[in-house]
Amino acid sequence: MTTAREIDASKLPERLEALPGIELVRRATAGVPAYLVGGAVRDLLLAEERADIDVAVEGEVGPLAEALGGELVEHARFQTAAVSVDAHEIDIARTRAEVYEHPGALPSVSPAGITEDLARRDFTINAMAVPLSGEPQLIDPHGGVADLEAGVLRVLHRLSFVDDPTRALRAARYAARLDLGLDPDCERLLRSADLSTVSQDRVVGELARIAAESHPSRALALIDEWGLLEMGSAPRVAAALERLFAASPQWSEYARRETAILLATAPGDHPARLRRRAGKLARHDRPGSPAEVQVLAHDHVPEVLAMARAAGADWLDDYVGRLRHVELEITGYDLVEAGVPQGPAIGRGLNAALAAKLDGGAEDFEQELRIALDAAEADDVAD
Ligand code: ATP
Questions:
Q1: Residue whose CA lies nearest to ligand 1 atom number 4
Q2: What predicted TM-score, i.e. pTM, was given to this entire model?
Q3: pLDDT tens for residues 11-21?
Q4: Mapped to the 3 state alphabet, what secondary structure does 86-143 carry?
Q5: Residue 20 maps to a domain
């Protein structure tokens, strides 16, 4: 699906002035050629709000980051810094050229001017800049505005996905978020992107960014459709998770949406193991009592339960909304004081009391204690 839109580039200067935090950046970059770049320019043209300001400087990043104050995370290898100041996230990078030694490798970088810096970027719509001093004239050497207007994603050169196949995953993220289509040449190149040349960490990094989007399932469906990764049921599960978290404040408070969606989609043994656990829970017969719900649910991390719930285990709502908050009035010390020896009998006694309480069979301290002691004793006999 593609949305054609009108872009009024003449609005850029006034939108730039209105950008929260831009004054800070201007003050810090005074005297150095600096530019607003990348997604920040794209979103300014689209009049979309965004949390971070992307800045490129033709010079050292360190002094600029220092001048901005705030909290700094510096990546020396790439001459980039992320500064957090007064609720503004400012990403600063030195303008640079990149060389890819082999497909999928991280690039070697060397300082270069803004023109080369724009030429190393992923898509035309992300390859624009606006100078932060002097005339705020849009620099758009690759036709980014025209592609934004046409609703098209286009790479800057034929080898773009060979150099960095993660761009194909980025394409899915932008296409889904901004309702863009692929330029036909770009689509041909993208469909032969080979993600096996990239480390699993980088693939997971891009999937994590997709998981943080408003509609990750759309991007995941595109990844599948374009033949980039075998997604299996992941887009469907992600869509169900999107619906669950959108509809349920209690699930949103309990589990992390982004983590659950990432676990539902990511490659690797650990996510696969957690997906199997969620699947097993979802296929389990509906529990007959709250105590049984508790037993089935309490050993799992919240995101596993969210995946199981999204796959249909609606009995987990009671666990998340109510049962997990139920606490006993007695503790292990009460059992020790009553003569139960340290050891497994304590745990079994407490479990029995909790099960009774969840099922409505223990209403106060005395009843909990009696049930716990009976269970501890019975278990002792069994031991
Ligand atoms: P978002 O809107 O989700 O914050 P963004 O467009 O700002 O995303 P980032 O990943 O923050 O993208 O990167 C900032 C800019 O750096 C991009 O707009 C793009 O120009 C460039 N860039 C990022 N990753 C790549 C890449 N793998 N290849 C080429 N250019 C990239």
A1: 39
A2: 0.92
A3: 999 999 999 89
A4: CCEEEEEEECEEEECCCCCCCCEEEECCHHHHHHCCCEHHHCCEEECCCCCCCECCCC
A5: yes
